[in-house]
Design goal:
Layout lengths: L2 H21 L3 H18 L3 H24 L3 E2 L12 H11 L13 H21 L4 E2 L4 H26 L5 H33 L1
Antiparallel strand pairs: 1-2
Helix pairs in contact: 1-2, 1-4, 2-4, 3-4, 3-6, 5-6
Length: 208
């Protein structure tokens, strides 16, 4: 199975588990399922630290955006609500899950800003309509809510793509950088030992 196909299948398994169990009032099961998918994903990428950073950023963006939607009444999650006006954990976890596809099965949307924006504008509302059909989410208005979600995803998906490219291009966490840092540490350690040995020899010479 190719990496893109495997990534796509795992994403959909996590998505369905999260939505289905959230609708049943057992969102924690979906959270666990997404956690397992994310772990499997991080084990499969070349530089897991970079990918983990992308997932963390996506989770933070998701928390802020989804909380605004809940606070404004655009969306509600009666079966599995969050704390106060905060978005529930499972919908935030879905953002982390979605981010696992950006560098793999959805990497093609990074070809252009407009492509990512169009995909977000269409795919975002469709995903929430599917979630509504399964009973996991309620819309504040059948017309306004999809439009707001589409507008938000039309902006946020290109932003996520840009962030992913920036992280991928960064030298931070590169194996070569890590190896270089390790070599410098070893060199400094050897120099320190040599310096101590010379001081010890000098001290003995003076004593004589």
């Amino acid at each position: 199975m190719g990496a893109s196909v495997k990534n796509f299948v795992l994403y959909n398994v996590g998505w369905f588990a999260a939505v289905y169990f959230a609708a049943q009032g057992q969102a924690w099961i979906g959270d666990v399922a997404i956690g397992l998918v994310v772990c499997a994903h991080l084990l499969s990428v070349p530089i897991w630290k970079k990918e983990a950073l992308l997932l963390a950023v996506a989770g933070l963006i998701g928390l802020l955006w989804e909380t605004v939607l809940v606070w404004s009444g655009v969306l509600s999650y009666p079966a599995s609500p969050g704390l106060g006006v905060l978005a529930p954990s499972w919908i935030v976890a879905m953002w982390v899950l979605f981010a696992t596809t950006i560098n793999v099965s959805l990497s093609w949307v990074k070809r252009s800003w407009w492509l990512a924006s169009l995909f977000g504008a269409l795919g975002g509302p469709l995903a929430f309509l599917a979630g509504k059909a399964l009973g996991a989410v309620e819309f504040g208005d059948l017309v306004t809510t999809p439009l707001v979600i589409g507008a938000g995803w039309a902006v946020l998906l290109p932003v996520l793509c840009r962030i992913a490219d920036h992280i991928n291009a960064s030298p931070a966490f590169d194996p070569a950088q890590d190896a270089g840092a390790s070599e410098r540490e070893d060199s400094n350690h050897r120099f320190s030992i040599l310096q101590q040995a010379l001081m010890l020899i000098s001290g003995k010479s003076l004593n004589k």
